[in-house]
Amino acid sequence: MIEEQVKRWALEQRRGASAAKELWPTITVSREFGSQGALVGELVAKQLGFSFWDQNIVRAISEETGARDALAASLDERARSGLDDLLADVILGRSATQREYLKQVVRIVGTIERHGAAVIVGRGAQFIVQKDCLSVRCICPIEERIVGYAERQNVDEKEAARVIKLMERDRQKFIRQHYDKDVTDPTHYDFLVNLGRLGTKAAASLIIGGYRAKFGKLPPKAQAD
Fold it and tell me: pTM score, two decimals?
């Protein structure tokens, strides 16, 4: 996936001298843990013909820094203390610290944004992008997230509730620690999408409609109605 996308970008760059490419603004999707926001983002990307970036950002960092996937994932969207980073520095090298990881995230998100036509899920991308973009946050009532997560992961609801609360706490601390923002503040987004009221397909259609309303048009190859 990542290699294919890089090859497409390289091909577009080679053709750039003879044909100007229209830059389609990026979409960033923030999500409550367990809300299925990543799935919605993937549907949006597919319907618009955009590249989709979620866990593959972690893999891209692993490939470029030589860090193991599990190590990069351990730094992803989780709050860590200065002591955590110091220990990682000593044991695993500077590339393992969350500070260095974030530098890589900012660089990769910036590259994605420059090429446009992309949906980026999580990683605080809404606070990284420099140009105008469509920024949405997917939410869902905690009760529904607990039931859904328990079913998808085949765990009981007590364990699902524990995981959801832990991940939500870590994500919120991560954003506040590194971006000095409240990820739950609705004023950071163009609009919120309540997946407790809408299914994933309807939510994707709503986001695509918001994209059309904000930017005046959709890509020619868009599959949206």
Answer: 0.77
